[in-house]
Structure formats: structure tokens, C-alpha cells
Amino acid sequence: MKQDMIAILDLGSTRNTDAARAVRALGVYSEIINYDITAQELAALPNLRGIVACGGPNDMVDGVKIRLGEPVRKSGLPVFFFDCEDEGASMPMPAESVNIENALRAFVFDLCHAEANWNMENFIADQVELVRRQVGKKKVLLALSGGVDSSVVAALLLRAIGEQLTCVHVNHGLLRKGEPEQVVQVFRHELGANLVYVDASDRFLDKLAGVADPEDKRKIIGAEFIRVFEEEARKLDGIEFLAQGTIYPDIVESGTKTAKMVKSHHNVGGLPEDLQFSLVEPLKQLFKDEVRACGVALGLPDSMVYRQPFPGPGLGVRCLGAITRDRLELVRASDAILREEFSRAGLDKTVWQYFTVVPDFKSVGVRDNARCFEYPVILRAVNTVDAMTAEVPELEWKVLRRITRRIMEEVPGINRVCFDLSPKPNATIEWE
């Protein structure tokens, strides 16, 4: 790595990512490290110039208060102690925020003498070098969903190892309307990638039959993805690596030593213990906005870089409870209408993510002058920078009314449309 680094030492803060992003905003690379890092692990961090120690409410592990470890104390590196939050305190006033920013800037540049060389060009150059060193002459299989993260990984790996890369797009039956066809068109026919398409819809849906717990669903989907990739790898020669579009929020939300798990991401908590591949994850330290910046720097078109985020488990976490094929089709059809109407209103360029959810219960309604008992649809739209927090945008009433009318008229089995106003936190972006 060519960039200087400031490490964010996790001493129990729930805002470690805010501290990491604040350092990166200064043009210096930052990475969150565990409170119990060893001297050997600390010495292995490249170009480490200083440490920001973030305290907070989660400063007890197994009943013992976390303190600055001996490896950090003896490292000789400058340490900036930052009490990132008091759970009962209000947000800092603007003047206080400026003072914190000025103190952090002085620490990073005046005391640590770090160079502001964190940018996407340097990041890409580093990752290309690291991937080539890791992979050598061997071959890599990329789990290509067609979303932003895996698309950026594909572009980066094509630059790093070219024909050593094989992309596998698995249709697990949980994709949006028209998505498998679009992925094949873009990657095989427009970008010229070596793409293998696998229709495993029935296989995944059979595995998920009767499974209601969202954690179980994610883990089943993650494990089954790996099984499919292993089977495809056996058809090829020399595949020893599996590439994934893992990004930093995936890792944070899957749980750290001081932070409670929000949810297991299929590519983190859902990986089987008997994984037969070594992982290649060049984006795992990037936030979502940084992934998009990386895609732009790699020359990907805006239509791909700014594409709607889509979870790896797909519609499986938007068909709440035990997945049924009929409710899955209701999610798919209502989601297509929502996306069409958002595009028509120009909201696809201003709203970060939007989708529909169908829960596993019905409500009473009226259809054709008779009582009906059908499913509701929940509309979800959020704006965010890094997917760690999110706000709900204010939408025009006429747009919501048009979406509601179309869904109830065009999607049989739906008699109620609701709009989710919950920010993150306390809610998450997805419902499961």
C-alpha cells in the first residue's frame, strides 16, 4: 500500500465508522482495528502514522473495561484520544464540530506527518498490485450479481488479471424483473467478460421452503451460493480463488468484538466453514460512496455505477417470513412498478435506494364490491451516503398515489399499500 494510514482503535464506540470517514475526508487512509490488536498485527499495518482511540458506551467485554493495550502504548506512535459519544449527550454544536475537525486535522498532519494521498487512483493501483500478488497465475471465480459492488470488483479484476477471471452470474430466483437478462447483456455482450450464467431458481427456492427466520434465510442463501460456485469451478480448470463484492458496511453490520451484530450479510456471516476457495475481496475496506467513486475511476458507465443497490439475498429479504412463490411474484411485480414510476418522476436520480416489501400476513379489503383478504405492499425509499445511517426523503403525494393505484390495479392479490417513514437507526434499510 502506497497510502499513509491512521488506524481507528475500537475501544467501544458506536461511531468508529464516523471517525474513519472523518480521517478519509482529510485525504488520509483509515482503517478500524480491534482493541486487542497484537504487536505483530500492529507492525504489519502498512505506512501506519498514528492511532485515533475511540471510546464509547460499548467499552466492556466479558465484564472487563477495555483499555489501551500494551502493544499500542509501546508502539511509539502518536495517539489521539477521542470520546466519540456519550449515549445521553446531544450532537455537538457547529463550533464544537469545527474544533474536533481542527484537532483531528492537526493530529493527522502536524503530529503524525501523514500525507494526504488517499484517492481512488492510488487505491486502485494498490489493489491491482495486491490482487496480482495474491493470485499469481491462478484463476479467479467472481460471484457477479450485477450490482454496483460486484460490477466494480469485476472491472478492477479485469484490469488486474484479465483472462484469469471467470464471472459467474447465478439466478437464485430472487432477482428483480428483467435482471438476469440485463446482467448477461451488459457483461457478456457489452463488456466482453467471460461470463457463465446459471439458472438455479428452483434449487434455492426449494432450500428456502418453510424458512422464516431472516438470519437462517441469509445463511442458507450464502451457503448455497458457495455450493453453486464450487460446482461451476469444478467444470473449469485451476480455479482456486473466489472474488466477492464485500464492502465495509457488510463487515461492520455482521458484528465486531465490541459492536453487536445488526444482521449477517450472506457474503460474511453466511459463508460455510468448509469453504473450498481463498477469498479475493478488494473492496472490503470501502464505504458505498467510495465504491461508486472507484467505479467511476475504473471507467464504468454511470448507469452501472449509480445503479440501485440490491442485497445479495435479493428479494428473499423483501418477501418477509417464509418465502412463497406467489408472494415472491408480488414483490417482483410491485417493485417493477415502483422503479418505473420513480424513473418517470426523476426520483431515480435523487433517491439512493427504493424497493417494495411484502409481509407474510393479509388484511381485509374490498374488491369488486366484495370482501377480499389479500397482502399489503410496503414502499421503502431512503437517502444515505455510506449505508450506515439513512433518512427517508419527502416524496410528492401525487407520485405516491400513482404508485399505489397502479400496484392495486395491476398486481392481483394486493389490497393495501403502505409507505415506510422510518430512518436508520432505529430501523435498517432493508426489513430483514
Strand order of the largest sheet: 9-8-7-10-11
Strand segment count: 15
**Strand coverage percent:** 15-25%
User: What structural class results from the helix and strand content?
Assistant: alpha/beta
What would the average pLDDT be, to the nearest integer?
Answer: 88
Which regions have little confidence, pLDDT < 50, spanning 5+ residues? 86-94, 260-270
Give the terminus-to-terminus CA distance. 36 Å
Overall domain count? 3
Radius of gyration: 23 Å
Taken in chain order, the helices and strands follow as EHEHEEEHEHHEHEHEHHEHEHHHEEEHE
Percent helix: 25-40%
Number of discrete helical segments: 14
The CATH architecture of the largest domain can be named as 3-Layer(aba) Sandwich
Give the CA-based shape. Answer: globular
Q: What is the CATH topology of the largest domain?
A: Rossmann fold
CATH class label of the largest domain: Alpha Beta
Classified in CATH, the superfamily of the largest domain is: HUPs
Q: Let me know the largest β-sheet.
A: 5 strands, parallel
Can you give a write-up of this model?
There is one protein chain. By secondary structure, this protein is an alpha/beta fold. It has 3 domains: 5-111, Rossmann fold (3-Layer(aba) Sandwich), CATH 3.40.50.880; 120-305, 3-Layer(aba) Sandwich (Rossmann fold), CATH 3.40.50; 318-419, 2-Layer Sandwich (GMP Synthetase, Chain A, domain 3). It is built from 14 helices and 15 strands. The chain has helices at 16-25, 39-43, 70-73, 94-111, 120-135, 148-161, 179-190, 201-208, 214-235, 248-253, 288-297, 302-305, 325-344, 397-410, and strands at residues 5-11, 29-34, 48-55, 60-61, 64-65, 79-83, 139-143, 165-171, 195-199, 239-243, 278-280, 353-357, 363-367, 370-382, 414-419. A 5-stranded parallel beta sheet has the order 9-8-7-10-11, sandwiched between helices. A 4-stranded parallel beta sheet has the order 2-1-3-6, with helices on one face. A hairpin with a 2-residue loop joins strand 13 and strand 14. The protein starts with a strand and ends in a 13-residue tail after the last strand.
